[in-house]
Amino acid sequence: MAKYAKYQRKSPEKKGANPIWRGIGCILIIVVPLLAYGLMLVFVPPIIATGKVPTQLLGRVHFPEWAFKLRISADIARYISSIDNLWMNIITFFVILLLLTTVASLLYSMIYTLVGPAQYSELDAPPTKYKGKKYTR
Questions:
Q1: CA 123/CA 136 separation, integer angstroms
Q2: I need a labelling partner for 127 at 20 to 30 A (CA). Which of 1, 74, 90, 98 fits?
Q3: Which one, of 41, 29, 37, lies nearest residue 101 by Cα?
Q4: How many domains does the chain have?
Q5: 2 occurs within a structural domain
Q6: pLDDT digits 0-9 by tens, 36-89
Q7: How much is the pTM?
Q8: In this structure, is residue 63 part of a structural domain?
């Protein structure tokens, strides 16, 4: 190799994503919200039974009269107003969803650090082990 020749690094072939990581994405996008919905159905009645829930979150949602003038909006308003404790269900669902997503993301990151690629490549310099001199006056 000549003195001033430029070093060309050959890039290795990229294999693509492992199907396991796609499965984890499926869990995060599809399974976690379904699990949160199921847990919401289980946890809402005991939470309401404690008696510490504000009354504004309980009962059915009431819509103004103008929501019932169009047929489409009337059908939607009737369906939504037929659901008991809608606000309590929505709040509980999102709290459980947030907790489950946090746990799933933490597990994903821990597994990825154990199984994922190396932190340094073959061309990276090793980290320095130099510590500064002891300071004396």
A1: 38
A2: 1
A3: 29
A4: 1
A5: no
A6: 999 999 999 999 999 999 989 999 999 999 989 999 999 999 999 999 999 999
A7: 0.69
A8: yes
- Domain of residue 95, residue span: 34-113
In the block, residue with structure tokens 């809608």: 86
Residue that the structure tokens 């169009």 belong to: 70
Q: Are 90 and 96 in contact (CB under 8 A)?
A: no
Q: Can you tell me the distance from the alpha carbon of 121 to that of 115, in angstroms, rounded to the nearest whole number?
A: 16
Identify whether the C-beta of residue 80 lies closer than 8 Å to the C-beta of residue 62: no
Q: What is the CA angle 48-50-55, rounded to 5?
A: 50
Tokens 């004396």 sit at which residue?
A: 136
SS (H, E, C) the chain: CCCCCCCCCCCCCCCCCCHHHHHHHHHHHHHHHHHHHHHHHHHHHHHHHCCCCCHHHCCCCCCCHHHHCCHHHHHHHHHHHCCCCHHHHHHHHHHHHHHHHHHHHHHHHHHHHHHCCCCCCCCCCCCCCCCCCCCCC
